[in-house]
Amino acid sequence: MNKLLDVLSWVALRCSQNKYLNAIKNTFQNYMPISLAGAVGMLWTNVLVNENGGLGAIFPLIMDLKFFSPIFEALNYASISCMSIVIVLLLSSEIAQANGDKDIYPVIVSFLSWLIVTPHTIDGLHINVLLHTSGGAIIETKLSTFVHIPHSVGVSLSDFTAQGLGTLYTSSTGLFTAMFVAIIATELYHLLRNCDCLLIKLPSQVSTNQVLSFMNIVPTFLTLLIMSSISYLSIISTGHTINTNIYNLVQLPLQLLTGDNLIAVLVLYFIISLFWIVGFHGKNLLSPLIESFYRPLLYINMAAYNAGLRGKDIPYILNTSMFQMFADIGGSGATLGLVLYILLFSKRGDNRLIANISLFPSLMNINETVIFGMPIVFNPLLDIPFILTPLVTLTVGYFLISIGFCPRIVIEIPWVMPPILLGFLVTGGSIYGAISHLICICISLLVYAPFIYIYERKQKKEEYIY
Q1: Is residue 73 part of a domain?
Q2: pLDDT in tens, 185-241
Q3: Same domain, 272 and 344
Q4: What is the secondary structure of 344-405 as a DSSP string?
Q5: With 0-12 CB in 10 A as exposed, 13-18 as middle and 19+ as buried, what is 277?
Q6: For residues 74 and 8, what is the distance between their CA atoms, to the nearest angstrom?
């Protein structure tokens, strides 16, 4: 046990001390309120006031509220379709704070660097348009589908360009580029600003604001020049922009590796449970890894759902909201099943007291009272189901989504959302999502049942001995 403690302590220390993983974790946690605002917009336009598969098809009177839809569409666009812009700003701020830079200037330089590497012209062949059909549906397609220019004219659609930033770069497909640019530009600026030979120094009589402005001139220029040079070199050497190269070489392979890799997630949750049973907060310790790899997958699903994709056209099964729904039922270890079993079947007053105290927090996915009250920590008999239950419920949830019974998870919600309602909301308002969540709650109860039964018999024997 001491050896296990030493190993887990070493892993926990390394995770907690990694500047970039912690910065990414904090970035996505800080982005969550914005994501929730976008989720409200998505629920309004796709689930509530929608006559094509939403509640509007069942209750036509709801469509009278369509007058307000532009408000929620704008909210949705700003939050979901422009997420990469927000991630650049938030992540740069986290890195700058870790470097000891307290002003906002590194964030501005980082954002300008992202603008530099992001294409701002779109040729006619790649301009996307929204087609509003007579039935009220909206289809995203390309302008080239409907516009044909004869060869005799001497120009093609590619000769026409539009100015602006495409959602290909500002939405979830540009997430990893945003993160790379934020880290590189912020670190580069910090390095250059700390080189005395690059600073323009003014007499002491000059005001502080003027001094800071002149000190930032050379580091800012060099940072932007280097980022622009990197972007240009990427284009002339590979024929593709930095965005395309990062997406094809980093983001897409990483998403394919993690997006449907159930084994990797089971190993991750096994380690989380190991931390818990020796007294560490496993979820917090490994959240840098979870946030870095799996929260972007949730945002990609959100963007796909927002674009009108459904079913298996939604890219990924695994993401942070999926873990929240199937692995963290009542908190780490899926302990809601434990609490419910005790309340339904246990006759021991001490255990029922703990369960009664823990019921409401467990419904909000807070379970420290169970973990330390039963206790589960350093309790081998209860450690087994604590480790086993989330692995079983995760596997069942993965299976239910794979066969199409449960829709793929496409919405982010607060982690304190009560069960069943959680399953309904994260699947875009699907009753099958709620049923799937209920199934896994029942399974968690069944997994804990034999171990609690044996544990209470053991408690009874120990009472006779003493």
Answers
A1: no
A2: 999 999 988 887 766 665 565 555 655 666 778 888 899 999 999 989 988 888 888
A3: yes
A4: HH---HHHHHHHHHHHHHHHTT--HHHHHHTT-TT-HHHHHHHHHHHHHHHHHHHHHHHTTS
A5: buried
A6: 46
